[in-house]
Amino acid sequence: MKRAPTRKRAKDQRVQRSNIRRTQAAGKSRARAQSRRVAITGAAPAPAHETAAIFPRAARRRLIGLALAMALTGAAIIALRDAPRWPSADAQAQAAADAAWREATRSAAVAAQDAVRIGIVSGHRGHDSGAVCDDGLTEAALNFAHATRVAEVLRAEGYIVDVLDEFDPRLRGYRARALLSIHADSCARINDFATGFKVARAAHSRVPDEADRLVACLTARYGARTGLRFHANTVTRDMTQYHAFDEIAPETPAAIIETGFMDLDRQLLEGRPQVVAQGIVEGMLCFLRGETP
Q1: Are 206 and 248 in contact (CB under 8 A)?
Q2: How far is the C-alpha of 54 from the C-alpha of 291, rounded, in Å?
Q3: What separation in angstroms does the CA of 158 have from each of 162, 202, 222?
Q4: Phi and psi of 123, rounded to 5°?
Q5: pLDDT band at 216 (very low <50, low <70, confident <90, very high)
Q6: Which of 90, 101, 142, 186 is most deeply buried (CB count within 10 A of its CB)?
Q7: Rounded Cα–Cα distance for residues 248 and 257 (Å)
């Protein structure tokens, strides 16, 4: 009768020892798994029951949702900040109006400046001597003396004056209220009739009426001031097809003047250059002021 309990206790002890061994084996497995996670991540994660205790599942979901919303909001803000800003229709219209006003102002300023700008070409200057007298007097020297005096007087009248060389690069597309090229005739003794002056415009001027009026003013005023006669029969193709006429802007009225013959008219050209210059100035002012020749 006493052996049965003994056998039962022995069986219970075996079962208990088996359960202990299984528990120990499971603990070792968990320890090995945790060691592997620590080796990979570098930090031991909190036990699942601790994480759940600190952040319940519902709270974790709310935190994840909040983080996602904040990330999306930040991305939207950056996108709006970096997006190109297109001006409104009113702003575009105002910008167009401002640009048009600036262009109109610039064009008006250029036109106003052109209206008072005068070009004076000093014949042969910077290229060659032109006609030469036996004693060394050159046409280029006479022309420059006359051109500079003309420029001084016209500037005193309030005009902008450019003194240009014979083949001045500024002649290309040159725009002004008028352009005049100053020259003098041969120093060779031709005959007793080789005296007087002449004025001509381009044979094919784009502004013939204006150019004709410029020629008429110069002819009338220069002849009256100097007393020289107009030597019409010696106007040459070198004058009517003068190179500068083809270089300047087509809307610029232009003419060329031969102030006199360097032989028979030398006393005037060299001895009284102020009279020559005054005659040219009066002719230019006649044209610029719209006077009757």
Answers
A1: no
A2: 104
A3: 13, 27, 21
A4: -50, 130
A5: very high
A6: 142
A7: 17
